[in-house]
Design brief:
Order of helices and strands: HHHHEEEEEEEEEHEHHEEHEEEEEEEEHE
Oligomer: single chain
Radius of gyration: 22 Å
Strand order of the largest sheet: 12-11-14-19-16-17
Mean pLDDT: 87
Strand content: 25-35%
Bound molecules: copper (II) ion
Structural class: alpha+beta
Largest sheet: 6 strands, mixed
Number of helices: 9
C-alpha cells in the first residue's frame, strides 16, 4: 500500500509548483513560496529539494530567508545603492531668475529579478523599480520630460500641488507608447512624497513597478522659525551632510497575478538588507524617507528594534508629528520621515521590519549595522 499522503501537503506542493512555474524561478525558501496560504504555517512539511537556509548565524530556527543572491548587474540597479541614489536632475535658470530643475523619465518594459531566481515582468521608470528618487528644493520650477518606450499607455502622477492638466490621469498627461509629455509645476509643498503611474487599471500599473520617491526639501529662507532644521534637510548644505539619509520604498510583488503578493521588500529585492546590512555610523543621526507603495495589502509598517524615532507624517512639517515611537503604520501611498540616532548604543546589528510579520517572512526585513566609524 502506498504511503498515506496528507491532502493539505499535496495542495501545498501543487501551489509551490504553480508559483514557481508562473514566476519562472528556481530555489526559494519554503515560506516564501507557500506564505500566501494560511495552511502553510500549520506544519513543518518541506517539499523535496527545497533548501531552507540559515544565513544569519545565531538567529536559529525560523530564520527563513531566500537562498542565493540577485544579480544586481543584470538588474541594472542595486537596493543598497538605491538608499542614497538621488536624482537631482539638471539645473538651469529661468528668465525671472528662478531655478528650473529638469528630470528625464522613461517608461520601459523590463524583466527584473526580485528574489534569487525569481524574475518579474516589470513596468519601470528609467529601467528600475522603484523609479529614480527625485529630489528638488521647495519653490523651484520642475520640468519632467516623460517618454514612453513601453508597450502600454502610462503617465506620471505626482503627489504634490499642481494644475489639473499636469495630473497624469486619464484625460491629462497620459502618454501612449512612442509618445512624450512634459509635466511642469512648482515644487511644493516640501516633504516626502511619491509619484506613480495613473493609467488604468491603476493597481496593476502601480504594482508592476511604476512608482518612486519624490522629495522636496524645505527652503530655509522661507522657514525662519525652523531654519536650522530646514537646512539639515536641504541637500548640499553642511547641516545636511551631518546626517545619514536613506530612501526606502516599501514594495511587494504578485508573481502569479492572483492579486496577492508573494514577495515583500524595501527597494525591490527580498531580504536584501538581511544579507547586506545597512552600514550606520553611530555618531551621525539617521533620516529615512519612507514610502509605502504596496498594492493588494492595505497596511504596512516600519518597526525599529532597540531604538525609538521621531516621525514627520508626509514630511510636510519641521517638527515631529509623532515623538519617540518605535513603530509607524502606513496605508498605501502613505509616507513620512523617520529620524533617530544610535549614538548611545553599542555597535552591532539592529533589525527593522514591518509588524505584519508575514511580510517579514516573505522578504521585508533588514538590519542596520551600527559601527563606531567608517574604516
Ligand atoms: Cu502605467
Amino acid at each position: 500500500m502506498d504511503k498515506p499522503t496528507r491532502p493539505d501537503l499535496m495542495r501545498r506542493r501543487s501551489l509551490l509548483m504553480g508559483g514557481l512555474a508562473a514566476a519562472g524561478g528556481t530555489a526559494i525558501c519554503t515560506s516564501a513560496a507557500l506564505g500566501q496560504q494560511p495552511a502553510s504555517h500549520a506544519g513543518h512539511a518541506v517539499p523535496a529539494g527545497t533548501v531552507v537556509a540559515d544565513p544569519m548565524p545565531g538567529m536559529g530556527h525560523g530564520a527563513m530567508m531566500t537562498v542565493g543572491d540577485v544579480d544586481s548587474a543584470v538588474n541594472g540597479f542595486d537596493p543598497t545603492d538605491m538608499l542614497t541614489d538621488w536624482d537631482t536632475g539638471t539645473v538651469s535658470t529661468l528668465p525671472d531668475g528662478r531655478t528650473l530643475r529638469t528630470f528625464e523619465m522613461t517608461a520601459e518594459d523590463r524583466e527584473i529579478e526580485i528574489a534569487p531566481g525569481i524574475r518579474f515582468p516589470a513596468w519601470t521608470y528609467n529601467g528600475r523599480v522603484p523609479g529614480p528618487a527625485l529630489r528638488a528644493k521647495e519653490g523651484e520650477r520642475l520640468r519632467i520630460v516623460f517618454r514612453n518606450y513601453a508597450s502600454h499607455p502610462h503617465s506620471i502622477h505626482f503627489h504634490g500641488i499642481h494644475a489639473a492638466r499636469m495630473d497624469g490621469v486619464p484625460g491629462a498627461g497620459m502618454v501612449d507608447p512612442g509618445d512624450e509629455f512634459v509635466y511642469e509645476f512648482d515644487a511644493k509643498p516640501f516633504g516626502c512624497h511619491l509619484y506613480h503611474c495613473h493609467a488604468m487599471p491603476l493597481r496593476r500599473h502601480i504594482h508592476k513597478g511604476m512608482y518612486g520617491a519624490f522629495v522636496i526639501d524645505p527652503d530655509p529662507e522661507r522657514r525662519p522659525e525652523h531654519a536650522e532644521v530646514a537646512r539639515s534637510r536641504l541637500l548640499g548644505t553642511p547641516e545636511n551632510a551631518g546626517w545619514q539619509e536613506l530612501v526606502m520604498v516599501m514594495n511587494a510583488f504578485d508573481t502569479n497575478f492572483d492579486a496577492e503578493n508573494e514577495f515583500y521588500a524595501v527597494n525591490t529585492v527580498a531580504h536584501a538588507f538581511m544579507k547586506r546590512p545597512i552600514r550606520i555610523v553611530k555618531d551621525k543621526p539617521v533620516r529615512i524617507y519612507l514610502i509605502n507603495v504596496i498594492e493588494f495589502d492595505p497596511i504596512n509598517s516600519f518597526h525599529l528594534h532597540a531604538n525609538f524615532f521621531d516621525y514627520y507624517d508626509q514630511g510636510t512639517t519641521l517638527t515631529p508629528t509623532l515623538k519617540t515611537v518605535d513603530l509607524i503604520t502606513q496605508c498605501q501611498a502613505q509616507r513620512g520621515i523617520l529620524e533617530f540616532t544610535f549614538a548611545e548604543h553599542e555597535p552591532g546589528l539592529y533589525m527593522f521590519h514591518p509588524h505584519q510579520t508575514e511580510f517579514t517572512e516573505l522578504g521585508w526585513v533588514g538590519m542596520f549595522d551600527v559601527v563606531e566609524a567608517l574604516a
